[in-house]
Amino acid sequence: MSTAPFTPWILGLTGGIGSGKSAAAERFVELGVHLVDADQAARWVVEPGRPALASIVERFGPGVLLDDGQLDRGALRQLIFADPAQRQWLEQLLHPLIGQEIFSYLAKAETPYAVYVSPLLIESGQYQKTQRILVIDAPAELQVQRTLARDNTSPEQVQAILKAQLAREERLRHADDVVVNDRDLQALHDEIDRLHHFYLTLRGGQP
Ligand SMILES: CC(C)(COP(=O)(O)OP(=O)(O)OC[C@H]1O[C@@H](n2cnc3c(N)ncnc32)[C@H](O)[C@@H]1O)[C@@H](O)C(=O)NCCC(=O)NCCS
Ligand SMILES: Nc1ncnc2c1ncn2[C@@H]1O[C@H](COP(=O)(O)OP(=O)(O)OP(=O)(O)O)[C@@H](O)[C@H]1O
Question: Which residues bind ATP (predicted)?
Answer without folding.
Answer: 18-23
